[in-house]
Amino acid sequence: LSPVVRAVKRAALRPASFSRGMQTVTLIPGDGIGPEISTAVMKIFEAAKAPVRWEERNVTAIKGPGGRWMIPPDAKESMDRSKIGLKGPLKTPIAAGHPSMNLLLRKTFDLYANVRPCISIEGYKTPYTDVNLVTIRENTEGEYSGIEHVIVDGVVQSIKLITENASKRIAEYAFEYARNNQRSSVTAVHKANIMRMSDGLFLRKCREVAEGYKDIKFTEMYLDTVCLNMVQDPTQFDVLVMPNLYGDILSDLCAGLIGGLGVTPSGNIGANGVAIFESVHGTAPDIAGLDMANPTALLLSAVMMLRHMGLHAHGQKIQTACFDTIRDKKVLTKDLGGSSKCSEFTAEICRRIQDLE
Question: pTM of the predicted model, to two decimals?
Answer without folding.
Answer: 0.91
